[in-house]
Amino acid sequence: MKFLKLLFLLAMLISFSAITLSATPTEDVSFPDFDFEDKENSDHLPTESQETTSSLRGTNRFLAQTRAYMTCDKNPRVCEVQGSAGPDCCKKMCVNQMTDWFNCGKCGKKCRYTEICCEGQCVNPMYSKNHCGGCNNECKKGSVCQVYNTQNMKFLKLLFLLAMLISFSAITLSATPTEDVSFPDFDFEDKENSDHHQTESQETTSSLRGTNRVLAQTRAFMTCDKNPRVCRVQGSAGPDCCKKMCVNQMTDWFNCGKCGKKCKYTEICCKGKCVNPMYNKNHCGGCNNKCKKGSACQYGMCSYA
């Protein structure tokens, strides 16, 4: 089993090294000769832009301070409200260090791609006896956690052969000659030549972009956009996949109801909707905390008339 893993990693390293070596330009790269006629005016322009942007930065800082008033680093009790992602505060975000993949046990501690966070520790559910296949799934005495069986061994062999074929195809594709990489000579007086150079540069860079796509596909093999079932494993952050991350759209502050929908600093996500727990009758002080008839929600508490 370990020998197959080593062979698989060796094949992937060979393919990556072949792609990177083929992507490097062989001939000398010529850079453009820029000719600026008036340098005094160009030196004067940045000073004016710096003066104008300095005043804008002051207003932005003031707005940032007012917006960040409700973050958990200033108010740790925000994470204790019902509907929050967790009781712990890491980088102005409420998380649960017992199950969070990016903050497992402490802030900033990330687990590996083959691991999950169980009880504040990064474990491998494929071989862990206490967390076999998921968190808190403990094996009985005398048994061993082996998720792979004989059928999976055959599947690993097929994967190894497939990786070898991919590496060989990448080497052959990278060995094909491409056009010479050259940068255009900028001439501000002749616009027709500049348009012609742009089309040539787009054609030359397209071959390099192809190699980057191959590398990006191999890196994103274990993300949830390719394997949505990863989000269904016990210990994941949620069943939904947003930007290659497992989230819960019913309670996630950054993806409330749908991917990319962020709530305001004074709001929380309850049942896929952004609500203000200070004044919402159905979610007063936290999610699903509904006030009775005749009462109003004021400052997170149900006031009775």
Automatic annotation (TrEMBL):
Keywords annotated in UniProt: Signal
Skewed-composition ranges (Basic and acidic residues): 191-200
Entry keyword annotation includes Transmembrane helix: no
Pfam families per record: Stig1
InterPro entries: Stig-like (IPR006969)
NADP is among the record's keywords: no
Residue ranges of the region described as Disordered: 190-209
Signal peptide: 1-22
Membership in a protein family: Belongs to the STIG1 family.
Protein's recorded name: Stigma-specific Stig1 family protein
